Amino acid sequence: MSERICPHCGARGRVDAALCCAECGTWLEYGEDGRLRGLPEALDCPCGIRNPVSREDCEGCGRVLQERCPLCGGLHPRGRRICPRTGQGLPGRGPSRLVLALAGVFLVALATWVLARPPAGLPGLGPRLDVIFVLDATGSMGDEIDAVKEHLRSMIARIQAGSPAPRVRFGLVAYRDHGDEFLTRVFDLSEDPARVEAAVRRLEADGGGDTPEAVAEALHAAIHQIRWDSDRSTSRLLFLIGDAAPHQDAGLDFRAQVREARARGITVHALGGSGIQESGEKEFREVAELGQGRFEFLTYRQEVVRADGSTGHVLYQGGAAYEASGEDPAWRRGASRLLREGKARAVPASAAPPAPLPGADLQNNLDTVLTESVMDEARKMGVSY
Predict the structure, then answer these.
(1) Is 57:63 a contact under the CB 8 Å cutoff?
(2) 310: three-class secondary structure by DSSP
(3) What does the pLDDT look like over 13-22, one tens digit per residue?
(4) Is the pTM of this model over 0.70?
(5) Are strands 320-324 and 311-317 parallel, antiparallel or unpaired?
(6) How far apart are CA 345 and CA 363, in angstroms?
(7) Pairing state of beta strands 266-272 and 235-242?
(8) How deeply is 350 buried, as exposed, middle or buried, from its count of CB atoms within 10 A (0-12, 13-18, 19+)?
(9) Are 222 and 270 in contact (CB under 8 A)?
(10) Cβ-based neighbours of 117, under 8 Å, separated by 6 or more
(11) Contact assessment for residue 246 and residue 377, using Cβ atoms and an 8 Å cutoff
(12) Res. 72: pLDDT tops 50
């Protein structure tokens, strides 16, 4: 299996050891026939419920759907004869293979227990954090979702670069609104960057088109469908990221969901995207206050053409515009911070807005805000960066 062929784009030799095609970005697995195929988006239970691929049992009827693989240690659908990660046949029922299989399961379980519950005082093992992104996946959030897709690997690398290195699990709850393709979509916590990245790459911005959105339902899913670490020493963080207010006319109450999160030891932060000041700023600020977290506007940056023909960069944050100097990457820390440091100046509301440079992308700093927020929490737990 030295040469792998992606079944989606047909590129030869471009599928890496993690089974990701370097040509088209598709995440793959080995099927029962030993051939590569795309990862399933959900596990279908005979009871009719579609479950996230990270679940071991059905969230509807409780039926066991997946079991631990003795070869790679991952979760695979029950009854598989081929390991989807290695392409190798699973051990049969002969006595020697049975012993090896049981030994493999025992070692995997032991390693998982030791790594997840390191003895107190053991050097080199950092604190544990569970981090969930509750992300608006309606059509207006395409730029923010793309930022997470593009920078997720570097985000994880920066967070884990501390000393001692923190053990961080990431998960995702995507939400849209009633009548869209889905209301919420849950990807459970994982410490495997490849699984986290695969979950994020499946996500596309679509639907919505109006306000409000299913914020309360998303918070409820994050609290009840995510397998949070129950250890009190583990820090639990939830980041609500969106650009529209929650429903308040009927159904779940977003305030009650945040209060329940706090009762379970989860700190709730809220990040407002472009347009949040028109619908949702008040509610997002209330989420952060009730969740004992922080509210923050995201900053957006675009290259523009001034009236005199010269080019520059304008930052947008919370409905206000700021002109930044030069190519300073510090803009990712936020326009308000640059303003305090004298590296940006407010554009008067009465001034004619500069025209965007043709073809210039509108960038945002979501990845930096998330990364630095998690690093700040890790610092409180004794991690140095």
Answers:
(1) yes
(2) coil
(3) 778 777 878 7
(4) no
(5) antiparallel
(6) 19
(7) parallel
(8) exposed
(9) no
(10) 231
(11) no
(12) yes
CA distance linking residue 369 with residue 298, whole number of Å: 8
Per-domain residue ranges of the chain: 40-116, 128-298+365-380, 299-362
Whole-number Cα distances in Å, 317 to 108, 113, 320? 48, 44, 5
Higher pLDDT, 205 or 57: 205
Provide the token pair at 180: 């869209």
Considering the domain 128-298+365-380 in this protein, what is its CATH number? Answer: 3.40.50.410
Q: Where are the beta strands (DSSP E) in the chain?
A: 28-30, 36-38, 43-44, 50-51, 66-68, 75-77, 128-136, 167-175, 184-190, 235-242, 266-272, 292-297, 299-305, 311-317, 320-324, 344-346, 355-356, 363-364
CB of 257 closer than 8 Å to CB of 220: yes
Backbone angles phi, psi at 322, to 5 degrees: -135, 140
φ and ψ of 222, to 5 deg = -65, -35
Lowest mean pLDDT among 48-52, 130-134, 242-246, 304-308: 48-52
Are the C-beta atoms of residues 9 and 15 closer than 8 Å to each other? no
Query: Look-up: residue for tokens 């039926």?
Result: 63
DSSP string, 246-303: BP-SSS--HHHHHHHHHHTTEEEEEEE-TTTTTTTHHHHHHHHHHTEEEEEE-EEEEE
**Torsion sign, CA atoms 370, 371, 372, 376:** positive
Tokens 């053409």 sit at which residue?
305
Dihedral class, residue 128 (left if φ above 0, else alpha if ψ from -120 to 50, else beta):
beta
pLDDT at 115: 54
The Cα 300–Cα 53 span in angstroms is 34
CA distance 253 to 256: 5
